[in-house]
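Proteins fold reproducibly. Take a tokenised chain:

. . .
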Amino acid sequence: YIVVPDSPGLDGTDQLTVTTWFRVDNFHQPNETGDRGIFSKRVRNLDNHSYNAFFRNGGGGRLIVDVADSDDRFTSATSFIEGQWYHLALVFDGSLASNERVKLYVDGGLDGNYYESSTFIPDNVSDFHIGNLNTGSLDRLKTFDGAIDEVRVISEALSASQVVAVMNETRVCELPLVDHFDIDHNSSVIF
């Protein structure tokens, strides 16, 4: 997994979008935690959540999402399957009505509008984890089993058409970069 140090652009806002491509190879987490994180911005379980997206053992391939703590946790309508690439966009807009503040998009389509009581994602002193649901302990990792690509944290609430535009962008992979690999999102082959 990757740890991105805390910075002002990652939280402390009333609008935020997180986008990524991902492919799950295995939903089952064999350790006692039972969770596999795609991304998380929190200190540890139940402490200073900014946002998280993860899968849980026995969850039927549905994504669990927290925004601004875990009080209004929701589960995606989409059931994801192992071995398939998906584009995910989590959009938060604190200026909207509470039942419309969070939108989840899968492959450019709206998975759902989700209730969120908070109007602001707090400025928590926590790192951004990609591929791990941070527990605050190296003894209890909740690592993702699969592939994650093109994670973006955008300090505005993207519209549906902007989400599709981000999904359809292709970034040129100019080697010899070590932090970017060109990936064909329609298969499991890395080019």
